[in-house]
Amino acid sequence: MKSEQTRDLIRTTALRSFREQGFDATTMRSIASQSGVSLGNAYYYFPTKNHLVQELYLEVQQAHRAAAEPALAAASDLTERLGVVFRTGLAQLAPFRDYASGFLTAMVAADSPLNPMSPESAPAREIVVGLFRDALAGARRALPVEFEARMPHALWLAYLLLCLYWSYDRSPGQRSTQRLLDQGLALLKAALPLLRTPVLRAPLRRLLDLVGELGA
Amino acid sequence: MKSEQTRDLIRTTALRSFREQGFDATTMRSIASQSGVSLGNAYYYFPTKNHLVQELYLEVQQAHRAAAEPALAAASDLTERLGVVFRTGLAQLAPFRDYASGFLTAMVAADSPLNPMSPESAPAREIVVGLFRDALAGARRALPVEFEARMPHALWLAYLLLCLYWSYDRSPGQRSTQRLLDQGLALLKAALPLLRTPVLRAPLRRLLDLVGELGA
DNA sequence: CCTAGTTTTTGAACATGTTCAAAACGACGA
DNA sequence: TCGTCGTTTTGAACATGTTCAAAAACTAGG
């Protein structure tokens, strides 16, 4: 009970090291020794290295929300508001660009707690899904009603894909990712009126239902 | 020179084990001992465990082509032809469903030879991109000309995303993936006429250009 | 048939994530 | 103060991917 301190010490050391050295170079042994603690002790508090990354993951999403909410207040156009959420999210990831590969590897396994769709990631996931919900809710012109329920979740998935692109983007300053986002939003804006035609609306709704099964 | 046999023995043993036991359970030591060879010897022929998976990867894509080409000959509608390529591809992956996670993990790292976008994966990649090129070329009604160059590559990426969905799909028999594909093709079919309107064509072309940067 | 050089093969070693039995510690009732 | 029980901490151990120096097998050239 007392030594909640130890847990926090390990957590803090690990998160600093993740930021400064990346996932691979941050070794459980280095975390332990930098914390002045034995290797086994780190495992007493965190069952897995991935569980330590989870803490980082949550911290990043919280920073995302802190950055997005004020910026959202200043935008009223739908695609503009979505752009805010996407862009502030990418901004949080920027420091990790060099180590993206290592983190990505730990995140894709279906049974990893780090998988964005895992139950363990639910708190972090809810933050971002919530941001997209807010972005939609506060927009001047709303979406067709039948999309509103599924859309935040689908946008979150789109955000994950954008992050995937970002992690592979080798253009200087990840300019390509920025442009992909801009062009994607432009396409959405142009396509928005067409979504009201029944021809597109029906298959699109079914598509959203299926996509929604991920991380439900 | 002579002992090309050894290389083949190791390769064969490894591929069989990958199919039967999956990626994680197939250990470099088990490959070596089942081949009646020392651990170090396996590394003499394959610099990395991932390089062994690469052999499997290529074999799977070749089977994909072998399954797709005859089926393509019987279809003339564009979306139908695309469906053939998608479906025959998924069929090759079915045996690996239980181990998808392990393979996926090895594939996402940007610097892994197993990454579908890596230069090492080029031969396997070209097979599938080529299938999509054929599917487009033989269709009754063609796409707008300006899309033709980028489209096969973009479809290959869409195929990768479908595989990603498939690997997370926990529905019995991966029915959800089947339906996602069906609905996606239905949406494409419905949207196809709209792609000729300049309002959509311009941002879509720019999007395709950016997407094309992956694995180029 | 010997020797020198090249190709193959081996086995030990290392780093890392993870597990676990045992030791150290700490609080608390007798 | 002592002993006991639960919590914390430790260090050794294991499996795995990978590296490497040295041994073995092989191939020519004389």
UniProtKB/TrEMBL annotation, chains A, B:
Sorted alphabetically, which Pfam families does this protein's record hold? Answer: TetR_C_23 (PF17931), TetR_N (PF00440)
Keyword annotations of the record: DNA-binding, Transcription, Transcription regulation
Where the record annotates domain HTH tetR-type, the positions are 4-64
Q: Which InterPro entries match?
A: DNA-bd_HTH_TetR-type_CS, Homeodomain-like_sf, HTH-type_TetR-like_transc_reg, HTH_TetR, Tet_transcr_reg_TetR-rel_C_sf, TetR_C_23
State the Gene3D superfamilies in the record.
Tetracycline Repressor, domain 2 (1.10.357.10)
Query: Residues annotated as DNA-binding region?
Result: 27-46
Q: Which SUPFAM superfamilies match?
A: Homeodomain-like, Tetracyclin repressor-like, C-terminal domain
Q: What is this protein called?
A: TetR family transcriptional regulator
Q: Which organism is it from?
A: Gryllotalpicola kribbensis
